[in-house]
Amino acid sequence: MLTRAIETLHRREGGRILAGLIRRLGSFDLAEEALQDAYARALEKWPVEGLPDNPAAWLTLVAKRRGIDLLRRQGRNDGDTLLATLAAEETEAVDGEAAQAGVADDRLRLIFTCCHPALAQSAQAALALRTLCQLTTAEIARAFVEPEATTAQKLVRAKRKIAQARIPYEIPAREALPDRLAAVLAVIYLVFNEGYAAGDHEALLRPDLCTEAIRLGRVLAQTLPGEPEALALLALMLLHDSRREARSDAGGALVPLEEQDRTQWDRGKIAEGLALLDEAMLRRQPGPYQIQAAIAALHAQAAEATVTDWRQISALYGALLRHLPTPVVELNAAVALAMADGAEAGLRWIERLEAGGALADYYLLHAARADLLRRAGRYEEAQQAYRQALAHNRNRAVHAYLLRRLLETESAGTGGGRNNK
Which residues is 248 bridged to in the sheet? Predict the structure, then answer.
C-alpha cells in the first residue's frame, strides 16, 4: 500500500516538485537525482514513522536538502547560498494561493526552458514529458515510436545543451516570446493529451495531467494577455475536458463521442471555452488552435450526435491541414469527410494514408478504418482492422472498447450482414 501511495504521489506531484528543484538547483540532473533520493528516503522512513501530514512538502524538503548536499560535494558555493534561504522556504504554505501561483510559475518556466530554440523540436517534447509528466524513458520512446536508447540519448543531449549553453530557467522577455510560443503551446497540449488519452496506462484518463495542463494554459494566457492562440489552446482543452465524466463507462471502458451521455458534459467548462474562443477569434489572427477549438465547439454545441455539423467540421479540418499538414491531422480529416459524405469517401483517404506507412503503428488509424468499414457493412475487413488496432493499442480502457466492437462485427458478419471483401 505504501509503495502504491508513493507511486501515486510521484505521478501527481512529481512534476511540480521537480520543477521547483530545477529552479533552486539550476540543474536537471541534480534535481532528478535529489528527488529520486527523496523517494528512497521515504521508502525507508514512512513505514516506520508513518505517512507525513503533507507528503509532497516532506519530499520537497528532503530533496532540496539532498540537492544542496550534492552541490557541496561538487565543490560549488551554491549550497551555502541555498542553505541560507532554506529556513524561510520550509515554512511556506504548500497549499496556499500564493504557493499555487508559484507552482504554476515554476512549471511554466520549465516549459519555456524545455522549448528553447537551441533544442531540437523532438528533444523539447521528450524533455517536457520526462520532467512535467514524469514519464519514464521507455514510455516516451513508445509515444514517439522509437528505440528507448534513442530517447535516452535525446534526453541526455538536451540536458547537456541546457547546461553548456547556460539556457536560463525563466520566462523570456516579450520580444523573445514569438520564437518559443509555438513550441510552448505544443508542449502544454502534449501534456493535456497524455492525460486525456493516456497511451500506456490502465485507465483512459490521467486527470492530474489534464488539470495541470489547463492550469498552465491559464497562466500562459495571463502572461500573454490577448494572445489569440494562447486563448484558443485554453478553450480547446476546456472543451475537451468538459466531456471527461462521459468518456468511460462504469467498467472503465472508452465510450466514443457519439455514444456519450451529453447530460454528463460540464456545461460550465463549455461556456468558458466558447467565450475564450470568441475572444480569440475577435483578434482576427487565425491559427491552428483556434481551428481545433472551433471543431471542439461544434461538437460541444450539438445537443445530440445526429445533429453534429460534420460538413462544417470537415471544412475546418481542411483549413487545419494548411497549418498542420501532418498524417494525424489527415486521419482526422478523413474521418470527418466520412461522416459528412459517407464511409467510402473516408476509407479511400485512410487507405492512401495507410499506404504511406507513416501511421503503420498508430492504433487510431486502424481503429478509424475499422469503424468506417463497420459502418459500410464490410464486416470481415472491419474485424481484421479491429484486430490490428488491438495489437497496437496499450491502454486497457481503449482495449475494452475495441474488443466490444470486434465482437459486434463478428456477430453482425455471421448474422447475414453485407460483406464486401
Answer: 254
DSSP secondary structure string for all residues of 313-338: HHHHHHHHHHH---HHHHHHHHHHHH
pLDDT of residue 92: 46
Question: Which residue is associated with the grid cell 485512410?
Answer: 350
pLDDT digits (tens, 9 = 90+) for 12-39: 788 889 988 988 888 888 999 999 999 9
Q: Please, where are the H alpha helices in 132-206?
A: 137-143, 148-164, 178-196
Residue 246 has pLDDT above 90, yes or no: yes
Helix, strand, coil percent content, the chain, rounded in steps of 5: 75, 0, 25
Whole-number Å distance between alpha carbons of 376 and 397: 25
- Pairwise CA distance, residues 171 & 178, whole Å: 12
Q: How far is the C-alpha of 70 from the C-alpha of 73, rounded, in Å?
A: 5
State whether residue 346 is helix, strand or coil.
helix
pLDDT recorded at residue 5: 77
Three-class SS state of 271: helix
DSSP per-residue string spanning 203-253: SS--HHHHHHHHHHHHHHHHHSTT-HHHHHHHHHHHHHHTTGGGSB-TTS-
> Which among 60, 198, 61, 179 has a CA at the least distance from the CA of 129?
198
For residue 2, the Cα-to-chain-centroid distance in whole angstroms is 27
